[in-house]
Amino acid sequence: MSLRVQTITRDAHLAFVAARPSVSHMQIPAWGDVKPDWRAESLGWFDERGALVGAGLVLLRPLPRLKRYLAYLPEGPVVDWFAADLVERWLKPMLAHLKARGAFSVKMGPPVVVRRWSADAVKAAIADPGARRLRDAAPTSTEPRALDLAERLRGAGWRQAEPGGEDGFAAGQPRYVFQVPYAGRSLEEIQGGLNQQWRRNIKKAEKAGVKVVRGDQTDLAAFYGLYVETAERDRFIPRPLAYFRRMWTALNAEHPDRMRLYLAHHDGEVLAAATMLTVGEHVWYSYGASTSRRREVQPNNAMQWRMMSDAHGLGAAVYDLRGITDTLEDGDHLLGLLRFKVGTGGEAAEYLGEWDFPLNRVLHRALDLYLARR
């Protein structure tokens, strides 16, 4: 029998999230407040006894001049992804509910890891001239159930989406991320997992007098100045300052320690800054920024180690450094960031990616054409 899907209150949604060890920060009610161009709705899955057994945050983006919506569940929903009856019992009622709400297309991101590569495996892949992408390297571990899930989604009419950004209609989260496992490990063990360069840089920063402090909302302007400089250097379009202020207000209104800001000071100047998000036992390094000045004092390593240490103190099971490139070619300007994250001694993880289901094929095709022109 199919589960019943209906809109639930924010409180019910938040209680469901709080009862789980790990839920994406994009699947909490407050994330809808961060995205004012989308209309947010909390969905609940109910079983025959009326118990809430699944939840998700869906963002609805209107199609220009039409009362039809792209429905997007970033890194969600939070359901039993490995259920044998996933398609019929869990996903079909979700599609029916969203179609009734005016959705012409649904995009979701199953929070399911397919493959993992240890830090040593990633370093070996970078050094291997025959490996052009991370997927060319043998993984350290594979989740067979994830591969089966992909086949079931394809068989049910879902199609794997091409990677994208979040500008306008384009929506996309990183398929490849870098994570440091914390569960069952002491801080000393985590520190021991750092590579030699990282440990050396942390000591160098300490000796140079770099001080890492927690900031508050008033320090977002200092963060933003570095963020704009980083955007120019790394060739990406920066978000406006209002976005980060909205994040701070919305997330910390839901939980007083949901979002943190860290700043690395040296000789009276802020050289690096970063935001950190926490939901349950999962901690994310969210946005980072730094100046090109005085890099020799290693502010980024010092700041990351302070964040990693604080995450351990919060009881984190994983410290998530978010997206990495899967391209291993020397010409890729993001390869340096991958090397930086590999130095933490964690592991690269490949998620199942994002999946689309066209409820109205004509409008879905029109959206594809619109995005292609952009």
TrEMBL record:
Keywords for this protein: Acyltransferase, Cell shape, Cell wall biogenesis/degradation, Peptidoglycan synthesis, Transferase
InterPro entries, alphabetized: Acyl_CoA_acyltransferase (IPR016181), FEMABX (IPR003447), PG_Glycine_Bridge_Synth (IPR050644)
Keyword Transferase recorded: yes
Pfam families to which the protein is assigned, alphabetical: FemAB (PF02388)
Superkingdom: Bacteria
tRNA processing listed as a keyword: no
Similarity field: Belongs to the FemABX family.
Name of this protein: Peptidoglycan bridge formation glycyltransferase FemA/FemB family protein
Origin species: Streptomyces phaeoluteigriseus
